[in-house]
């Protein structure tokens, strides 16, 4: 099996999660409180991925390139935020959730590139990060499928579109891995810094912001820390095995 085929196979779980999420939402979309709990749980897992998997790798490299990566990551995420806002304004009156689909596609491409960076370090790092992003994709599929169903789109498209979006993550991961493998140490350190910021932004400015659109509950708050602990246990199991 070629390295590209192997990586494509290893990134299949997010696509399968999207299938499950889209099917679940097409059958019965989760309510706001359930969505909030899922977002908190997913946020905890993604935060743990940044804290336990990427940050230790950042500290293993020279400080300056990592800081440059942090700055570039902040600039990139703010630029994406501005672009997302413009897209949402442009398609605000559209019957179809075009803005949600486009913004989700952008998010998944960025996440796929971060995954490609992780696989460039090692298969182990990539697999561990895939676990975190799989749950993110599950929630995004739920959201997109529910929005399409609410817009009166048929069930088939409500399932196919989220799965197609999830495939972008795998494609971006394969492309990113091919582009980033073999880079000089300083450039790779900068990419690690950028990837760390991208994951932290996903948690603090997207998942948790949306989760707090409904009244906070103790269970939802606990779900964040449960997600962190779950990822901690998964990472420990993978590295021990």
TrEMBL record:
Per the UniProt entry, the signal peptide is 1-24
Is Transmembrane found in the keyword set? yes
Q: Which UniProt keywords apply?
A: Membrane, Signal, Transmembrane, Transmembrane helix
From the record, give the transmembrane residue ranges: 38-55, 62-84, 96-119, 126-153, 159-180, 187-204, 219-238
Q: What is this protein called?
A: Uncharacterized protein
């Amino acid at each position: 099996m070629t390295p590209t085929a192997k990586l494509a196979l290893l990134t299949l779980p997010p696509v399968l999660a999207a299938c499950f999420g889209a099917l679940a939402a097409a059958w019965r979309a989760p309510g706001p409180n359930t969505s909030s709990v899922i977002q908190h749980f997913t946020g905890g897992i993604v935060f743990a991925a940044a804290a336990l998997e990427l940050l230790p790798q950042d500290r293993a490299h020279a400080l300056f390139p990592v800081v440059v990566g942090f700055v570039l990551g902040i600039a990139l995420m703010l630029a994406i935020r501005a672009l997302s806002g413009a897209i949402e304004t442009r398609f605000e009156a559209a019957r179809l959730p075009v803005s949600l689909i486009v913004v989700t596609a952008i998010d998944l491409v960025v996440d796929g590139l971060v995954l490609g960076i992780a696989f460039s370090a090692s298969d182990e790092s990539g697999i561990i990060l895939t676990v975190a992003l799989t749950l993110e994709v599950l929630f995004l599929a739920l959201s997109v499928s529910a929005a399409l169903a609410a817009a009166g789109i048929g069930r088939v498209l409500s399932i196919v579109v989220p799965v197609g979006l999830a495939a972008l993550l795998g494609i971006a991961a394969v492309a990113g891995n091919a582009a980033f493998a073999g880079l000089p140490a300083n450039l790779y350190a900068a990419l690690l810094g950028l990837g760390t910021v991208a994951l932290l932004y996903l948690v603090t400015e997207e998942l948790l912001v949306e989760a707090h659109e409904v009244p906070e509950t103790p269970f939802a708050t606990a779900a964040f820390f449960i997600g962190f602990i779950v990822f901690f246990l998964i990472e420990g199991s993978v590295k021990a095995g």
